[in-house]
């Protein structure tokens, strides 16, 4: 790096990140920037435009699956013997479904309706060198970092304008026109639409209220606050609570209105918690079994007329189990979920290969190349995948009743950047020669309908890492925030 002001440009990039809320909490009074690249990753225009134009179909599919209770029960029941968390989720879903059925019979609440399903989903892809972009996983609960996705795009544009010489040196000849990213604005627009819809149904006084359910002492709070600030700018009041804080604070108002002590009526509930057992633990509640009390708090929310993301059924519909079943099903079978034949074919193009685990899997995997498959369980976030030689070891250690809770996914191998990439981590520049990227596309649907004029697409999130690293999360792995540009 010959340009003499390279260090200064990097320092200003760090300061820009912190100034604009692209930060992770360290202590109660300090923060640090997340790792980020100094230039975008490139993608062929045709590949990105196909993803952008078709990803809304995944939201359409997942919504329909989440509304088919009998299908969900049939799909999830086999994994409950080996996964106590999904056993609890399915029990919650059955409780909520029974209540909804009774409400329809009794015509109670507002027009006999229960909660309004708001599906905010991030579909994560890798652009395989041979196969093209293929789905890694659905993220239907706590699908975060959309605001950071927009911020890193804006940071790259800032560097291009303010520091053109070092930016050109970092970029090389490959980077073309940056691909716009309004993920923060898109998510806020979709959430606001559902929040105002509920508010207008009740026609009560005051501003609508958005409730974000969060984890206690979480460090990934600035991304969440950026979303809150965008909602506040649209005239929406925002409130943050943990499940424990909601346990004895929620109540029922007229016409199944959800009420929060000290706040009043709630119009939209957005879960950034609830995808792991620890979110439901409250050792100070002694009248019920651990986790049961807070699980019932979540169930209570869905028994009211309020917009909810993610519903329990949405969480089940975006599980690895459902992804495996949908991926392995023939295209024509997907038409039962409201897709046309052409839409089903496009969805099949996006879905990667996944197969079920059984008693033959351990022996079968021994005959396969080490880098051909990944073993996955039902966990959300990092740390739930098994690679290479460890796959056979794990498969031989599984109890038969755990087989259904695991699946094998064909491992994707995207081409790394054609030249060295520059990543800033803890204020220092690191050069990575084999940077690969994961492409997350956000969609927003309200009761199955696209919430945005764009057809449901709401922006993107790029996380990049060395191809030698298996854990690529920005928050808990070795990934870095990144943006996209068309290939020059």
UniProtKB/TrEMBL annotation:
Q: Which Pfam families match?
A: GSH_synth_ATP, GSH_synthase
Report the domain of life of the source organism. Answer: Bacteria
- The protein's annotated pathway: Sulfur metabolism; glutathione biosynthesis; glutathione from L-cysteine and L-glutamate: step 2/2
**In what residue span(s) does the Glutathione synthase substrate-binding domain sit?**
209-317
Enzyme Commission no: 6.3.2.3
Report the InterPro entries cross-referenced here.
Glutathione_synthase, Glutathione_synthase_a-hlx, Glutathione_synthase_C_euk, Glutathione_synthase_N_euk, GSH-S_sub-bd_sf, GSH_synth_subst-bd, PreATP-grasp_dom_sf
* Cofactor(s) the protein requires to work: Mg(2+)
Please give the Gene3D superfamilies that the UniProt record associates with this protein: 3.30.1490.50, 3.30.1490.80, ATP-grasp fold, B domain, Glutathione synthase, substrate-binding domain superfamily, eukaryotic, Glutathione Synthetase, Chain A, domain 3
Which spans are transmembrane here? none
Q: Which UniProt keywords apply?
A: ATP-binding, Glutathione biosynthesis, Ligase, Magnesium, Metal-binding, Nucleotide-binding
Q: Belongs to which family?
A: Belongs to the eukaryotic GSH synthase family.
- Protein name per the record: glutathione synthase
């Amino acid at each position: 790096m010959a340009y003499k002001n390279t260090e200064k440009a990097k320092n200003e990039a760090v300061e820009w990140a912190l100034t604009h809320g692209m930060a992770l909490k360290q202590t109660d009074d300090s923060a640090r920037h997340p790792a980020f690249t100094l230039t975008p990753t490139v993608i062929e225009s045709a590949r990105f435009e196909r993803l952008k134009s078709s990803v809304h179909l995944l939201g359409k599919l997942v919504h329909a699956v989440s509304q088919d209770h009998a299908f969900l029960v049939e799909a999830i029941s086999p994994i409950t013997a080996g996964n106590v968390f999904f056993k609890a989720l399915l029990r919650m879903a059955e409780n909520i479904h029974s209540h909804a059925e009774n409400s329809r019979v009794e015509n109670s609440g507002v027009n006999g309706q229960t909660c309004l399903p708001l599906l905010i989903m991030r579909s994560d892809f890798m652009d395989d060198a041979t196969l093209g972009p293929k789905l890694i996983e659905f993220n239907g609960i706590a699908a975060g970092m959309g605001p950071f996705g927009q911020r890193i795009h804006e940071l790259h544009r800032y560097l291009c304008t303010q520091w053109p010489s070092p930016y050109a040196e970092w970029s090389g000849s490959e980077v073309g026109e940056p691909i716009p990213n309004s993920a923060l604005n898109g998510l806020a627009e979709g959430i606001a639409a559902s929040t105002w819809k509920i508010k207008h149904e009740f026609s009560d006084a005051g501003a609508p209220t958005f409730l974000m359910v969060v984890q206690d002492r979480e460090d990934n709070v600035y991304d969440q606050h950026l979303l809150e600030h965008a909602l506040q700018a649209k005239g929406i009041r925002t409130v943050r609570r943990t499940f424990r804080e909601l346990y004895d604070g929620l109540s029922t108002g007229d016409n199944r209105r959800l009420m929060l002590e000290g706040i009043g009526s709630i119009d939209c509930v957005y879960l950034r918690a609830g995808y792991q057992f620890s979110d439901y633990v409250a050792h100070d509640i002694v009248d019920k079994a651990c986790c049961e009390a807070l699980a019932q708090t979540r169930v209570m929310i869905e028994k009211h007329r309020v917009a909810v993301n993610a519903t329990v059924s949405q969480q089940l519909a975006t599980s690895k189990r459902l992804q495996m079943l949908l991926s392995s099903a023939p295209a024509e079978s997907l038409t039962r979920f409201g897709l046309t034949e052409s839409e089903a074919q496009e969805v099949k193009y996006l879905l990667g290969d996944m197969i079920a685990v059984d008693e033959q899997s351990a022996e079968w995997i021994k005959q396969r190349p080490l880098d051909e498959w990944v073993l996955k369980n039902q966990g959300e976030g990092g740390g739930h995948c098994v690679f290479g030689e460890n796959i056979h070891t794990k498969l031989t250690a599984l109890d038969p009743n755990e087989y259904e809770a695991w699946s094998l996914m064909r491992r994707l191998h995207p081409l790394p950047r054609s030249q060295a990439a520059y990543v800033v981590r803890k204020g220092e520049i690191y050069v990575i020669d084999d940077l690969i990227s994961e492409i997350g596309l956000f969609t927003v649907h309200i009761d199955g309908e696209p919430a945005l004029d764009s057809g449901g697409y709401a922006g993107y999130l790029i996380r990049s890492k060395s191809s030698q690293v298996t854990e690529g999360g920005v928050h808990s792995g070795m990934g870095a925030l990144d943006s996209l540009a068309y290939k020059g």
